[in-house]
Specification:
Beta-Lactamase, Heat Shock Protein 90, 13 helices, 6-stranded antiparallel β-sheet, about 625 residues, 19 strands, alpha+beta
Amino acid sequence: MSLRQKLLLLFSFIVTAAVAAVAWTVLVRIRNVFDEQDQEKTTLLVNQFQREFQHRSADVASAVDRMADSEHVRSMALELVQSSDAAPYLTEAQSLAAEAQLDFLEIIGPDGNIVSSAQWPARFGYPESAVQTSASIPSQSFIKREDLPDGVTALGIFSVRSIHGTPTVRIIGGKRLDQQFLADLPAPASVETYLYTSADAPADTSPLFDPKRLLGIHGEVVNASRYQPLIKAASRSGQPSSSVVYLTDHREDSVSATVLPLKSESGQVMAVLVVAASRRQMVEAQQHIRTIAYGIAAIGILVTIAFSMWIAARVSRPIEELAQAAEEVAQGNWDARVDVRGGLRSRDEVARLARSFNHMTAELTAQRERLIQSERVAAWRELARRLAHELKNPLFPLQLTVENLVRARQLPEEEFDEVFRESTQTLGMEIANLKTIIGRFSDFSRMPKPQLERIDAADAVKRVAALYFPSKGIASQDNKVAANTRNIDCSIDLDASPLPIEADPELLHRALSNLALNAMDAMPEGGKLTISARSLGDRIEIRVADTGEGLTPEECERLFTPYYTTKEHGTGLGLAIVQSVVADHAGTIAVESRPDGGAAFVLLFPRSGAGDQAENANG
């Protein structure tokens, strides 16, 4: 990922995170404010309901008290006690209820049965459970469910009083607790009140939730079933509770609902008051703020892109040019330069960095030239020193031989011939030695360019083995054979599958031959020479191992340094030539020395066709 992309991502993340943090804070604050307002509205409405309930209770109690104290009712009660004839008073409750503006009114005789009922005249003679005994008469108003002739059940606020002078005759009167009662509550515009009652059982024990029993000011409530969990919870616990109710799948159709259970004198939950405050304004405000936040974030990202492009022109592009120039220097192009002009100002930090880079590469180029000259001089000096040292050894015997020939010229002919034969033999040997030394230095000074062709690494190994161990010329079928030469046991271990590499057969043969000779020289008392070749994925490994004395860590580090040798007679160029050949074949060479003795030279070459196989696999 480039610096420009990183800057773009960083700035985009910062802008998005900042906008998201501000939007989230505002949304949370708005929600808290609306929740507080809804709670205040709900609290006010609940308090208003309680006040209205107490007011209705007081009205009912006052009306029943006035009725119980009236002379007409007292006379009626006295006649009921004296004659026990309720027939003349079957319709009395209707006229009394109309006069007192009560929805429910029943006159209960001394035996606890209904004498007259305003809401259901046919119930005369039936017992009234609320006033069966004097001990069961509530002293205050209470909520009671009342059966009506049409088969429905109504909920009302009731009050019971005994008629003065005749305590066994009682009057129970009440007013409905219904939609009209809810309509009288001064609810805010965004708050609705509902009342839930069950048909025949208390709300907390009703087996099924009947959505039709949840009524509002305008009748049945839409999506009433969504309130079921909250109403059921309040019915079971008998305690007020609050929750968010989602009326549809849209958040704007949700409400903050608070339920208040309404209990009878015995503590049973007879009904549940639901106060629902709409959350539409809050949700719409949140959505509006969220839309604004998205817009600001989009604008911020666009500004970020423009800013990053400006940054790219001012900073990232020059830095990329610097990085590219640094890569060119790393690859060997020390003449790489960075243009200080263009998007760079002459006095900013990037421009100074570019000028410093150009100055550095110029200094590096100058130092490289000086270093190359110094290395050339040092190399020629070292070459001259090594050549002089190597030539000095054979020149001294040559000089002595010539001097002997000069002195032998004075000897008799027979003796001179003998000295002459010995001297010419010595001269030939030393001249051959000189040719060998000069040839090695010549080979090192001018290594030929390899003529690459596709060969099998196994064939190159067999050729080397056949040169020094004739019995190895033809390998067995399993590619594992052994031979013994000069007390040296030679073993070849080759993979059965082909080992193709791109190599110059002659140069590779020369390198492997050099390694084989070094291994044999390391085992003057005999030992085992192992030459193996195997496949390692996209590489081919050739290993030449011996069981000699091994090498020290210092020798392993300096072994491929030109002119370094551990032999008494040697130029120190053999392994340097091998390393040069391996490098020309895009391979690597390393040496391993085992603690128990012996050393191994490991050559790795690219497998011929491995690049094509990888390309085909990717394709």
